[in-house]
UniProtKB/TrEMBL annotation:
K(+) binds at residues 252, 254, 288, 291, 293. This is Ribokinase. One of its GO terms (molecular function) is metal ion binding. Activated by a monovalent cation that binds near, but not in, the active site. The most likely occupant of the site in vivo is potassium. Ion binding induces a conformational change that may alter substrate affinity. Belongs to the carbohydrate kinase PfkB family. Ribokinase subfamily. Requires a divalent cation, most likely magnesium in vivo, as an electrophilic catalyst to aid phosphoryl group transfer. It is the chelate of the metal and the nucleotide that is the actual substrate. Substrate binds at residues 17-19, 45-49, 146, 258.
Amino acid sequence: MKPVSEVKRITVVGSINSDVTAYVREFPAHNQTVLARESTLTVGGKGLNQAVAAACAGAEVTLIACVGDDVFGTMAQTYLKDKQVGISAVRQVAATASGTANIMVSEGGDNMIAVAMGANACLSPEDIQRHKALIEASDVLIVQLEVPEETVREALKVARDAGVISILNPAPALGSAGELLRLADIVTPNETETQEIANIYPGNPGDAAEAAEKLKQKGARNIVITMGSAGYFYDLEGEARFVPARKVEALDPTGAGDVFNGVLAVALAKGKHSVLAAQYAAAAGALSVMRPGAEGAAPSWQEVETYLGGAGRI
């Protein structure tokens, strides 16, 4: 057992991107050009977003990542420091561009994202070994798949050997992610990622339950399937249930899944039962969609507790 500490330490292994977001009335058809009502340039990437979400929720967070030697890499590191995320394990790669994400958000609140890995592709198992002690000293590790699969595998193995709780957010999905599912303590796919891995789209509670069973057959032990505005389905520690979402006015869903994972990690680090931790995470995700963009969307722990009406509810 790891010693109990008041300071909750989260390590995130993942991506850093610059996000170019266009807000459109509706998505363009094939070969169609549409006018956006506005566009923004912000920092993002699943690794950065999840690290910031965990930091906003009060954890001590360190990000293991790579950036290019460009203005976007500098911007991201400045932003992380401002958000109290440790960047001692962020490596700058010479003669390489930082990762980028091109995002479109429709008036209906849906989004489409295309990601270019850039320097994220340079994050290696050697980086994990170089910063192994960071993971071993953590309460929770978060990983996603915007960095090389072998690097994610190495991080999960370090966490498993050290008795550190690990969360795998399998995004973007890999059909070959079987070994990673077995290494992680909790797996958190969304609907499309679930379909990619389990070949079942969780469009309703019944299909979500069936998809969760498929994921367990592939090696996942504990699962939370996020289902957007519908809610989420969990299969955690032998208990399975669909939880409908509270109705909110979604302004921008970009990064909501990352907020979910960051706050899930903090709740677990605080000793919350996994079912209650998922509820905290869902509340944080709901709060984030009411704010524009991924940057600045993550709520504080107090905001989450206030939204839930105190110490949480089942």
